[in-house]
Amino acid sequence: MPALPALFVVSIDLEMSWGAVHHGAPHDDSPYRAEREVVSLVLAAMERHGISATWATVGHLFLDSCSPVSGVKHPEVVRPEYEWLESDWYALDPCSDITTAPTWYGADLVAAIKDCRVPQEIGCHAFGHLIAGDPGCSEESFAADLAACRAVAATADVDLRSFVFPRNSVGHLDVLSKSGFTTYRGATPPRFPNLSSWQRRVANAVDRVRPMAKTAVFPAVEGDLVNVPHTYLFDPHSATAQRFGTAAWSWLVKRRMHHAVRTGSLFHLWFHTHNLAPRLDRAETALDSLFGAARELIDAGRMENLTMGQVGARLAGTGS
Ligand SMILES: [Zn+2]
Question: Which residues, including other chains, have CB under 8 Å from residue 275's CB and lie 6 or more apart?
């Protein structure tokens, strides 16, 4: 038995239409229209199994309407200048309201997450889903984006502590820290960095079914921030999940959770709400299977369920 219980962290990227602005026009909002149902389904599963998560929410979703100021959309947000995007980052913002353009606003979703009977953390996923690690995103742009997030979150009485980088593109960590954030979600560390590419493919395939002790992941203090790396994408509609079927695929995910228990390490499940949208029944079955197994391990004292912010608070100042 490891000396410490494993950590079970769940982070959810909530972005709706904002997750597609990097594609530019035309925009089709139909893939995002089911996401309110997804949020309800996930919150109900949280309540059934007593699980807390970090909801990394795009800042613009705190709003229920917006309008241009002197003809400019969100002029306080300094624009990134990406080489690959010709239009303004906010060109697709409808400057409308939640009834007319429900996939661009989400004040009701923020309220629903806050009202969950099992406490949830609301984290940050940038104001307009900007890509911080791209060279086109300046420090000034990222700082202005975070300030805009903090301003809208304050109106909902939310103090943002945890950050998830859109497209997992990590950058400007010093700006993140100076903007009052304590915790971020980093990438899964490379599992077999010293192997050749074909050896790595074989090792990853074996590790997926029979996880090895050396692929355990731990949160890490990095200066003033705590990095809580993601370790597993929950995607019940992935090609792998469809090939194995929901039950067998859920079993594979649980193998990774038990691996964290054996090694006293971190199991950090993450997904976008749109990962669950195509088949809600399948998503619910997989969530119940996984959260049910997690609850048994938590009740047995072998695993703790913490939000990203709680992991950050626990590790802050430990320097290890
Ligand atoms: Zn707007």
Answer: 233, 234, 235, 236, 237
